Every structure is written in structure tokens, then in C-alpha cells.
């Protein structure tokens, strides 16, 4: 065994960072985390202070009002709508909060604010109403395509482009056969002749023809002053305003709300609405 030299095993090179590097990295991460937390807390406390100030001002404004709670809700809602300071709604009760945020979203063109509504049934309605208002304000038909409810989307497009008739039908991209029917409807309405309607092959357009011809000479009983789809008599029953197409200013006409089961004079469904 002479000449044999035992091999001394060599420790494998460590693949981990040196201990001091690890400690230094941990300290750096901790420092960064502390700085971020401080900045976030400062930002939040500033927002809370501003909200508290706004709330105090609203309470002071409404102190002598006969109904200070209603006054405060209206004051904060007006502020949120006019300035976009939606945090002003935060101190309100659930229903008032939803109305406040809904109005602010519509006026400021912020459909994403609708996601914070307490009543989740209102979220889609709020967004659709906001998109409808945005389309009206800008005249941009593309915004109508973001609306979920097909009836509201159709109304939106009609508001931008005007109702379909025989003259604009082709430019709206509708089939030639449908456009011929709209031309027939125009003729029936112009001549006040309902006898021209039954020959229309499409059921919905035939009923539209009859409705339009019938509305030409509508009586006092069927009068719809604001054109929202509810007669003045129906407006009285639902306690909505016969001279305002959208009594509660939520972006949906009174007629649309009733057809979808909602109270046209305020929040809630019809089963909870005053009769």
C-alpha cells in the first residue's frame, strides 16, 4: 500500500447565498414593507379626514332642516354627483348609499362604481343606466353595445340614431324586407289608417303599427305627456312624475322600470313600491 495517499473529501460548494447577504436582504425587504405600510396608512387617514369634514359640513347645512337625515343624504349625493367625490356616500344608509353611488356613477361616467352597491340586484341596472347616460352625453353609439339588457341597448341606439323608420332603415343595416315593412308603417301612421296594419306579416311590427296609428289620436285617458311608455293615469298609480320620463333619474325611463318590475319613483322592486 506504499505510495497510496488517501483522498480527503472536498466539501461541495454551497449553492446558498452567504449568511450576511441573506440578513441584509431580509432587512431591506422589511424596510420596504414598513415604508409601503406607512404610505398606505397616511393616504387612508387623509381620505378619512376629508370624508369626516364633508360629513360635518353636510350635517351643519342640514341642522335646521325639518328632515335632517333626508337633507344630509341629498346634500352628500349632490356633492358626489357634481364633484365625483363618491366617498361622500359612505356614511349613508344602504338604500341612500346605493342611490348616491348610482347617481354619481351616472353623472361622472364611472360604471365601475356600481360594483360597490349594497343591493347586488342594482349593479347591472346601475351600469346599464350609466352607459346609457354616457351614450346620450357623447352621442357615441359604441357605448350602447356595453349595455347588458337588450331592451335598454335598443333604446340607447334609438336615442342616438333616432327610432327606426322607412327612411333610415337601410342605413341602420336592416334587411330590405324589414325596411319595406317600416315604410308601410310610416304610410299607415301618416294617413291615420289602421286598416293598413293587419297586412304586415311580422307580428311585433304589426302591433307596433297599430300602436303608432292608435297613438296619433290618443284620448285624455291614454295620454302619455312625457313619452316614457306610461300613461299619465299609470304615472299617478305608480306615484311617478307624468312630466318626467325618468322620475328617479336612474338612467331608465319610468316605462322601462315598470316593464322590468322596478319602482319608477325610487329604489326597489314594484312589490315594495307604494300603490
TrEMBL record:
Residues 219-233 have a biased composition (Acidic residues). This is Gram positive anchor. It comes from the Bacteria. It comes from Candidatus Uhrbacteria bacterium GW2011_GWA2_53_10. Residues 234-247 have a biased composition (Basic and acidic residues). The lineage of its organism: Bacteria, Candidatus Uhriibacteriota. It is found in: Secreted. Pfam families: TSP3_bac. Keywords: Calcium, Membrane, Secreted, Signal, Transmembrane, Transmembrane helix. The chain crosses the membrane at residues 20-41. Residues 219-275 are annotated as: Disordered.
